[in-house]
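Practice problem 4.
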């Protein structure tokens, strides 16, 4: 009953909150292209101020602004991470409506960034506003850190964390990755896989040649394909020399957590339109591989002539982009070193490795204050306990923030996407109902964090009284 006033406020302002999100989604903000980034940052800063946050904008070199906003009067602080840049839109012909022309169709808001992750950011700021309008000051201090370079490796965020450690210091961190699965179960994660994003390059003649020269001139496309074929087996197992020996065994508590997770295999197959899983996996082995299995993915290959019309050409250059998703104890630096040695040992010293970005594995306990607040607040809004992933299969610059403290800060992550949101793909969308649920849920997380602080103070007070009595 305590949240009746809060929920009514959200319901009364549902249209206004939705329109705010539409306005933000209407503004292009693709970091890789740079269009509209500063205007987007200014718009987000105004939203933060509207929610009652005192804001500062940081610019690191030529990077896009990092926004810092602080609100609340509690003695404990918690970081709330977000980003205002979005993924490239891809082919416009694949979109039913324009990626930056947010349209509400059958209760769903279609726009690039709606799911990843302008929707989460707007919902959290709306929850802060609603909480303060309903209850007064926040019971804890929230420190919003919102960047504009998540899609290009977050280079400015790393530098920001190095020189502003006092702003990052907090009891825990709330991230913005999460979803409802195909069975409408709310998913919470306690960490993220690491990542290293690489480019492999092979070179041939100084320019593309007529393919008649292929009899005597090396083809860099074949060279690259041959190098790539040594990195994984036909069944998708990573075969880099020494790679598997560096993977930590799954901890006992994580093995127990995996038993509680079930994937809707049939639903996912329908959603992805695939017939089966790699290596015929299913059940518990599929869950374990998704969460604690490292990956090597060819994200794209570029070489030669692929435009309309025939053109017999011997390419002068071939490039492939790969990402490795990392699990304990794999680090980005180690993977690059192992890959270099592996290729060299097979005669591919000429294949270049260019590092494009990386992030370490970040993992927390479900006993942290932020994890407890997120897990225990979920049933009231979502009608059932959440599904808790000990490690999210995705990656992000989590270690930049959480690793800036000693010991590392605990992290919990959740979001408003659903199984059909298609972030990073065409027709990215969220359901308006999920957006409004997320506002109400985050309000409860804030309140739960305040309860944690109050209980901690009460416990400390009882201990102090006990010490005084024992001394007397």
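Answer key:
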């Amino acid at each position: 009953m305590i949240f009746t006033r809060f929920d009514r406020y959200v319901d009364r302002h549902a249209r206004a909150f939705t329109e705010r999100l539409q306005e933000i989604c209407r503004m292009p903000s693709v970091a890789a292209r740079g269009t509209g980034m500063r205007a987007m940052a200014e718009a987000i800063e105004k939203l933060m101020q509207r929610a009652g946050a005192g804001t500062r904008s940081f610019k690191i070199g030529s990077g896009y602004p990092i926004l810092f906003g602080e609100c609340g009067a509690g003695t404990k602080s918690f970081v709330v991470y977000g980003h205002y840049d979005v993924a490239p839109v891809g082919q416009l012909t694949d979109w039913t409506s324009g990626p930056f022309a947010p349209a509400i169709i059958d209760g769903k808001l279609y726009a690039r960034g709606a799911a990843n992750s302008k929707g989460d950011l707007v919902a959290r700021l709306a929850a802060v506003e609603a909480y303060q309008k309903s209850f007064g000051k926040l019971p804890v201090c929230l420190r919003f850190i919102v960047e504009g370079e998540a899609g290009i490796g977050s280079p400015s965020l790393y530098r920001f964390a190095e020189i502003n450690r006092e702003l990052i210091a907090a009891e825990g961190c709330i991230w913005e990755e999460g979803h409802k699965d195909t069975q409408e179960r709310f998913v919470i994660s306690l960490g993220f896989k690491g990542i290293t994003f690489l480019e492999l390059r092979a070179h041939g003649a100084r320019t593309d040649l007529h393919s008649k020269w292929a009899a005597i001139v090396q083809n860099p496309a074949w060279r690259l394909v041959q190098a790539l074929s040594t990195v994984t087996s036909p069944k998708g197992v990573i075969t880099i020399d020494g790679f598997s020996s560096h993977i930590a065994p799954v901890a006992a508590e994580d093995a127990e957590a995996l038993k509680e997770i079930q994937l809707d295999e049939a639903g996912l197959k329908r959603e992805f339109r695939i017939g089966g899983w790699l290596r015929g996996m299913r059940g518990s082995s599929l869950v374990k591989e998704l969460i604690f299995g490292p990956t090597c993915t060819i994200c794209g290959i570029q070489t030669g002539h692929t435009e309309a019309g025939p053109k017999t050409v011997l390419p002068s250059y071939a490039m492939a982009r790969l990402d490795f998703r990392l699990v304990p104890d794999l680090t980005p630096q180690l993977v690059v070193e192992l890959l270099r040695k592996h290729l060299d040992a097979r005669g591919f010293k000429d294949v270049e490795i260019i590092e494009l970005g990386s992030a370490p594995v970040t993992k927390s306990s479900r006993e942290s204050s932020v994890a407890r607040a997120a897990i225990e607040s979920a049933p009231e809004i979502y009608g059932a306990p959440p599904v808790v992933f000990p490690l999210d299969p995705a990656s992000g610059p989590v270690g930049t923030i959480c690793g800036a403290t000693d010991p590392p800060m605990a992290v919990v992550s959740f979001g408003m996407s659903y199984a059909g949101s298609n972030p990073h793909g065409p027709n990215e969308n969220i359901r308006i109902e999920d957006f409004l649920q997320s506002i109400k849920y985050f309000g409860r997380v804030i309140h739960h964090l305040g309860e944690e602080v109050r209980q901690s103070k009460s416990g400390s007070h009882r201990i102090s009284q006990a010490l005084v009595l024992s001394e007397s």
